[in-house]
Amino acid sequence: MRKRFPFILMFLVAVSLTSCDVIHKILNTDLEEEDYSLGELYVDEYVKEVPFTPTPSSEAKAAGNVNALGIERAPGDNEQLYDAIKAWIGTPYKYGGTTKEGVDCSAFVGHIYRQVFGKNLHRVANDMQQDCQLITRSELKEGDLVFFINSKGKVSHVGIYLKDDIFAHSSTSRGVIISRLTDSYWSKHFYKGGRVK
Length: 197
Hints:
There is one protein chain. By secondary structure, this protein is an alpha+beta fold. The protein has 6 helices and 8 strands, in the order H-H-H-E-E-H-H-E-E-E-E-E-H-E. It has helices at about 5-40, 60, 80-85, 105-115, 125-130, 185-190, and strands at about 100, 100-105, 130-135, 145-150, 155-165, 165-170, 175-180, 190-195. A hairpin with a 2-residue loop joins strand 1 and strand 2 (about 100-105). The chain is globular.
């Protein structure tokens, strides 16, 4: 029995180390593949842009007809949407971030959708397409999602359409801001709108 004990002990140690090593490799491979695929979907060029600054008319200002974002109100505007976005304006961009310490584009959109519309969306911009009926730019309405592709042709960025060709999003260079779809970068990389089902 004593002669077998070291052999059995060595065998058990070898099996446990091998098992741990195999499990570690499998987990690392899965995580690396997941990180890679998430990274590929989030990858976007660094967009240095000037945020859109609303310029409501003096009449609208005098009448108090300006919403939380400084945009002129129109009948039927969703004030709750504008208020929710206003609370995030200026939050810095952070890849993978989900809080007001730092947020990426899809987490920002997800927070707004849960708060304003009571809907849970997929976590990644590319996957959010599954939550939507895809629409053209001319069909966009307040609250629709706007999807953008990166230089590899993959959906890598998402925002929330407001009106008059403006949308809210978490920009890589400026954090949560309002931008125009007519800006050269966004116009060139616009893919589709999405109306959440």
